[in-house]
Amino acid sequence: MRALLALLASISIAIAGIADVAWAGSARPTTLELSVLLATHGDAGTSIDPQLRELPQLTRDEPFVRYDVYRLIDRRAFALETGKPVSCALVNGRTVRATLQGKSDDAGPRRYQIAVQIAEPGKKDYLRTLTVTASENQPFFVGGQAYRGGTLFLELVIRT
Amino acid sequence: MSLSRETLLELMAFADGELDPAARTRAERLLAESAEARQIVDGLRAHSSVVGAWLGEVLAPRASQADAVADAVMARLEGAHDPGGVVQVAPSGRPRSRRRAIQATAIAALACAAAALVYVRSSSPGSGDVAMPAPVARVPTPASPSAVPGPAPSATALAAGDGVPPPGVEVDEIDSPSRNVSIFEVPLGRAAAAAEATRASTVVVWIDDDRGRK
Question: Do A139 and B114 touch (CB under 8 A)?
Answer without folding.
Answer: no
